[in-house]
Structures are given as C-alpha cells and as structure tokens.
Amino acid sequence: MLFGSRAKTTLPTREEALPGRDHRVFPVPVTHEVLGTPLEGPWPDGTEVLYVAMGCFWGVERIFWKLPGVVTTAAGYMGGFTPNPTYEETCTGRTGHAEAVLVAYDPAVTSPELLLKAFWENHDPTQGNRQYNDVGTAYRSAIFTTTPGQAAAAEATRDAFQGVLTQAGRGTITTTIASAEQAGPFWYAEDYHQQYLHKNPGGYCNHGPNGLTCPVGVANLPAQTDIAPPQG
After folding, report:
1. CA of 208: how far to CAs of 6, 62, 80, in Å?
2. FRET partner for 139 with CA separation of 20 to 30 A, picked from 74, 79, 129, 201?
3. Which among 226, 194, 163 has a CA at the least distance from the CA of 61?
4. Catalytic positions, please?
C-alpha cells in the first residue's frame, strides 16, 4: 500500500493553502470507542494535552490509548493553515497539516517523558516528509506541546534518542518540535478515523517498535517505567 504518493513533499505557504471553511462539515463521536471518555472534553481537572504526529494517525492513536494514564485520544489534523480541513484535502498536501493525535493524560499517573518514549520508539523520526510507505508532508513527524514541561521533555528525549540513533547508524531526527500555539488549532478528523483500528482490527498500520530504546530520566518517570511500549 502506498498512501499519499501524490502529495506535495514541501509545505505550502499560507497563501498557497486551501481556503477551508468556517465550520466542521462532518460529525465527530462524543465518546471514545475504547476508553469511554469524552473525545472533545470536558476532562477531569488537571488533565494535560500533548499532540503528536508520526505518520498515519490510525496506528498512532492505538499506541497511545493503550498507555496507562491516558484519558482520551483523538485523530486529527494539525500544523497547517486550512481551517476545518477534510481528510481528502489534507492528503493533497495543500492544507499544510500533519495527521496528528491528541493525547489527553493525567500527569499524576504518567508523564510527558513516558508518552514521548512511546513516540520515539514506535516510528522512524528520521524520514522527513514520509513514514515508510506513506509519503507526503501529512505524514511528517512532529510534537506539539502545551506546557513548559512537555517542551523540555520533547527536547530532552529528542537529544537522548538521537544519541541512540547515531550509535545505531540510523540517521538524523527530522521531527518538528513546536508549541501548540505556534502550530495552530487541532482539527478533529472524521468519525470513521476515530479509534479506527479498534473498529477495524485488521486495518492498515505501519507502526510498532523500531528496535531502539529511548533513555529517559528516572527522576521524571512515574511507576510505569517497566511497561514496554505497545505495538501499533
């Protein structure tokens, strides 16, 4: 399977991007199909949100909904210009968005470091505007943060994992790290994309352990440090 092969491999400017629209043109489920929690909130007090992009959002979302401490996950589009984009528009590369996953989590149970450990270990962050068979800017690797702690963890884990990649001869990380404010809104994807691999267990997924371990600071990790990252 080769998804996105016709997509642009360079990001459009704001002027080049598709115009989009001022409202969402498709339904989004109220409740997470697996976790039973609100997809768009409200969530318990203290919940924090991290956004990650690492290729096709189907497999990415499944990785994160399995992790302890995660309140909810959702598939969507982020980092581009087109308001209220559709899947078809995003796949053209003309919205500027990456396929992204919202991860709402309880910081008393997990941490940005643990979440990002799963991020680095379950895709190849050196591929630029692609992820294996999926080609185009929509499949780029990115982390969009909402707290100073997340931003610090993103940079620290990136640097730590780069050392592991270099030692293994795997190349240089191309992952974008930016604040969610810089990246722009997270636009929820269509209902059929939400928890797609739960609804379609045999569906397409190219995510899973890449064979490398991201070292993280023990002082920053809750008790789940011995939990292996789930396969996509």
Report:
1. 25, 10, 26
2. 201
3. 194
4. 56
Q: What digits encode the pLDDT tens for the residues 62-116?
A: 999 999 999 999 999 999 999 999 999 999 999 999 999 999 999 999 999 999 9
What's the pTM? 0.91
Residue 224 tokens read as 């789940």
Would you call 151 exposed, middle or buried from its count of C-beta atoms within 10 A (0-12, 13-18, 19+)? Answer: middle
- Report the alpha-carbon distance of residue 1 to residue 57 in Å, rounded: 16
Residue predicted with more confidence, 40 or 4: 40
| Token pair of 196 as six digits | 């797609």
- Is-contact 122 163, C-beta < 8 A? no
- Residue 227, classed as helix, strand or coil, is coil
CA distance 84 to 71: 24
**Ramachandran angles phi, psi of 210, nearest 5°:** -90, 5
Helices and strands of the chain, counted as H and E runs: 6, 8
- Model pLDDT for residues 109-150, shown as the tens digit of each residue: 999 999 999 999 999 999 999 999 999 999 999 999 999 999
